[in-house]
Amino acid sequence: xxxxxxxxxxxxxxxxxxxxxxxxxxxxxxxxxxxxxxxxxxxxxxxxxxxxxxxxxxxxxxxxxxxxxxxxxxxxxxxxxxxxxxxxxxxxxxxxxxxxxxxxxxxxxxxxxxxxxxxxxxxxxxxxxxxxxxxxxxxxxxxxxxxxxxxxxxxxxxxxxxxxxxxxxxxxxxxxxxxxxxxxxxxxxxxxxxxxxxxxxxxxxxxxxxxxxxxxxxxxxxxxxxxxxxxxxxxxxxxxxxxxxxxxxxxxxxxxxxxxxxxxxxxxxxxxxxxxxxxxxxxxxxxxxxxxxxxxxxxxxxxxxxxxxxxxxxxxxxxxxxxxxxxxxxxxxxxxxxxxxxxxxxxxxxxxxxxxxxxxxxxxxxxxxxxxxxxxxxxxxxxxxxxxxxxxxxxxxxxxxxxxxxxxxxxxxxxxxxxxxxxxxxxxxxxxxxxxxxxxxxxxxxxxxxxxxxxxxxx
Length: 459
Known about the structure:
- The chain is of the alpha/beta class.
- It has helices at about 5-30, 55-70, 85-100, 120-125, 150-155, 155-175, 180-190, 195-200, 210-220, 245-255, 260-275, 285-300, 305-320, 330-345, 365-390, and strands at about 45-50, 75-80, 85, 105-110, 115, 130, 135-140, 195, 205-210, 225, 230, 240, 355, 405-410, 415-420, 425-430, 440-445, 450-455.
- The protein has three domains: about 30-250, 2-enoyl-CoA Hydratase, Chain A, domain 1; about 255-390, no CATH class; about 400-455, CATH 2.40.50.140.
- Helix 4 runs parallel beside helix 6 (about 155-175) and helix 14 (about 330-345) packs antiparallel against helix 15 (about 365-390).
């Protein structure tokens, strides 16, 4: 019979072998493609395309695709709610989506969301396109800041150039993804839109789903064709991993909104105006420069009309000039007009590279209050400066006329001294005044004051 110590050795050996087998099995499972692990082990990276398509959002989506591929996720889900944006950044997103090695799922939601203008191209380029009930897609026809057709503003040739290039872009994406080519082109040429049901019936999207769980259930077992081959989706119960954009991407996405860029621009101008009014305060000037730098970053992400920007610069110059020229408010009135007109023209949405809905511009709700507040505040500062300059001649020695004081040394026609306004002055008087008498300054002659008894009125 084996001793206890002898019996333990085989048990330890079997335990070691079992541990080795488990480690080997774990390594094999880890090497399997992520999608092969079944629904219980599936993961989906989730990110959002909200707001205007610009450099910040494009960088976010590019990084999200790279992260999903790096982490070997089963899919990337992009929740879409955008009015459109810059076409160049949209093309960058489409290139990444078309070349992705994992399934890209675009879901326009929640209810009330839209995929407008440039957002149409993003949704069309996804492997799976879905919409929530109550959402809209379409209206990719270019318009100007006033909502007019480019043909009415820039001529027939400009309109044809913009339309043909963008329509070809939409057709190429639809053909690549097997979607409705005719509707995709009509979205550009005729600015057509579609509800979720209409888009599904026309073959623009693949599914209607109210939320993500319903979408994943509808996609269960569907096969997606990637460059690397077919991929069967098994996403029911998949673990969702939120992809958070970087601070830089968040900042660019926020600064690229016309309203925020405009507010920063107005605050920057106000800071400089205050600094001009009170040189040496430093804080208003420093904040003004900071706001102007942030506004410059934001405006660099948007199509800026040079005429609108020039009008704003002229307005700032007029507001500063009001402090040095007595125009009785005429310069401020002209500045207010330049502010209103320049603000309305600041964002040039007729720019061929900008595909966004007409409401993507500086809103009048921001223009009117800020322009009037800036003009009114600047006029108030100018008025204060004017009043101060008028009082300037009444300070110093000349400002002592009418002031009361006390005799220190007896005052005669030729000598004496008084204490007036916190200072001791040489004084004379037609009549002799004893020390301690209360007097009133009636005249200033250089550094000598002519005084009279306080009870007497000056002549």
